[in-house]
Amino acid sequence: MPMIVDPSAPHITPPTPAVSPDGWLTASVDATYAGVVLGVDYRAATPYARATDVRKVRILRTDPGQQAVPVRSADPAWAIEGVGAAYDHEAPLGVAVVYTATPILADGSTGPSSSLAVTVDEPTPPADVWIKSLDEPGLSARVTVTAWPQLQWSARIDSADVAGSPFPATSQDVYAAATSDITIDAEGEQIELLRTLLTTPGVRLIQTRGANQRPDQFVLFGDPAEAVDTTPDGPRTFTASVRQVARPDTAGQPMRMPGWSWDNLAANYGSYDAVAATFATYQQLATNGVLG
User: Fold this and answer.
1) How far is the C-alpha of 209 from the C-alpha of 222, rounded, in Å?
2) Number of Cβ atoms within 10 Å of the Cβ of 204
3) Phi then psi for 110, rounded to 5 degrees?
4) Among 30, 34, 1, 32, which residue's Cα sits nearest to residue 17?
5) pLDDT tens figures, 264-287
6) What's the whole-model pTM score?
7) Of 13, 23, 37, 6, which is closest to residue 264 (Cα–Cα)?
8) CA angle 263, 87, 16 (to 5 degrees)
9) Helix-strand-coil percent breakdown of the chain, rounded to 5?
10) Is 94 left (phi over 0), alpha (psi -120 to 50) or beta?
11) Quick one: which of 135, 224, 233 has its CA closest to 187?
12) Are 98 and 62 in contact (CB under 8 A)?
């Protein structure tokens, strides 16, 4: 959902970001949406000698015990003359992850890598499940799940009778991705948000606390239903089927940050002078002032 920006309002002091040892990569946790704002500035600290030759940056995230994967909005991201930004809405919750940024130069070669670690806090009960939209991170909700009874993996087994043998010939492929059903409570403004999440086509990410022993899942929702719990203006109960899918491809995806886009910028600032007076650097502009 869009964020209404008032240029005259005092700026919120952002949290102190994590910074790589070389000073080129920064990361700030977005607690509102359980994401991470990432920025590179190869002119910072001791500047990279070829900063003006940088055109893009590729940022990978390494989760505990996993192979590094590209950040969706940085595979790669633009970083003209060494300055760029990205947003990661998919980091696991409650554990430290490592981000590694590598600049891509105008001639196609790469420069030195920068790394740092951050942790996105996991949610606390009762609203301890995040349902996130990958295409629109601001369309994400921290919800109370009242029933998520089982994950089911279908076996894919082919068999054929064998003449003269009581035993069939069989082959078994990998198990199908998990399916399940889910029941969610919502009230107030969250009703419309959750309704949109469940009824708009697109891949969603479900995350919860490690103690729940439910792995992060990229899913498609099916057959959503909404029931009024008490009175028409009271809370609602949503149900849906859940089918796990593969993580959508990240290559070439644009940056998407909750409540911030060029459309938001144009709608809320009347002139270039107003923008320049508010944001001192491109990185501030790209991240709505979260990073400097």
Assistant:
1) 24
2) 24
3) -120, 155
4) 30
5) 777 778 777 777 777 777 787 778
6) 0.86
7) 6
8) 110
9) 15, 40, 50
10) left
11) 233
12) yes
